Amino acid sequence: MGFIGCGAVVIVPVFKSARDNEYRSSCMSNLKVIGLACELYASDNGDKFPPLSSNGKGWTELISYKAQKVIPFSCPAGEKSIGPTSDYFYNARLARFTYARIYEPTNVIAFGDGMDNGPTNSHLLESPIFALSDNSYPSRHRSGANYVFADSHVQWLPARGGSKIVSFDPLTKNY
Q1: Where are the alpha helices (DSSP H) in the chain?
Q2: CA 95 to chain centre
Q3: Using an 8 Å Cβ cutoff, are 130 and 161 in contact?
Q4: What is the pLDDT of residue 111?
Q5: SS (H, E, C) 110-135
Q6: Rounded mean pLDDT of 39-48?
Q7: How confident is the model at residue 164 (pLDDT cuts 50, 70, 90)?
Q8: Which of 94, 37, 27 is nearest to 60 (CA)?
Q9: Which of 36, 64, 107, 148 has its CA 20 to 30 A from that of 13?
Q10: Taking 50 as the threshold, does the pLDDT of residue 51 lie above it?
Q11: Given the DSSP bridges, would you call strands 57-58 and 154-158 parallel, antiparallel or unpaired?
């Protein structure tokens, strides 16, 4: 009986780690789709990021319409979504901003892990990367979170920021 208990102590963390990796990977995939849908929106709208909302529709609905497909706006590690909500945030500083004017698109966060079941125009004016609590959404995936950058690449970053230089301001030189 003791041997079985010892085996469970070893196996349970392995399964949890595998599930966490699956959630992080699925979330990154969701965010990649959101980044590409945003590019589609921009291609039809003067190379501009979508507004936070327009005609009663949040940014999630605006980019979904352009993509003409169902976009997963819920993170698998978050609570199950109810109704038209989003577990991801949008960098409000990019709303209606032209892609070409972004100083360093590889370092500017466009979208990322946000509040569970947030509104369809869920947005932030400041970066959540330097969170004060390890239980906040920047820690959703193994002490970090997933982000889409303005150039549409997706990356996991630690909750405390790590070594990557990132910005929320599209006009700032980041070094």
Answers
A1: 2-43, 59-67
A2: 16
A3: yes
A4: 92
A5: EEEEEEEEECCCCEECCCCCCCCCCC
A6: 94
A7: low
A8: 37
A9: 148
A10: yes
A11: unpaired
Reported as type and span, the H/E element at residue 154 is strand 154-158
- C-alpha to C-alpha distance for 124 and 115, rounded to whole angstroms: 11
- CA distances from residue 146 to 28, 96, 104 in whole angstroms, order as listed: 6, 23, 19
Give the global pTM: 0.80
Domain ranges (residues) in the chain: 2-158
13 token code pair: 């963390």
Q: Are 64 and 33 in contact (CB under 8 A)?
A: no
Q: Tokens representing 69?
A: 């497909």
Percent of the chain surpassing pLDDT 90? 28
Q: Which amino acid does the sequence have at 94? A: L
For 121, half-sphere exposure in the C-beta direction (CA atoms, 13 angstrom radius) is: 11
Pairing of strands 123-124, 144-149: unpaired
Residue type, position 56, single letter: G
Q: What angle do CA 62, 150, 170 make, to 5 degrees?
A: 105
- Three-state DSSP string of 80-91: CCCCCCEEEEEE
* Overall residue count recorded for the chain in this entry: 175
Terminal-residue alpha carbon distance, the chain: 59
Report the sign of the C-alpha dihedral through residues 17, 23, 26, 27, in that order: negative
157, 128 in Cβ contact below 8 A?
Answer: no
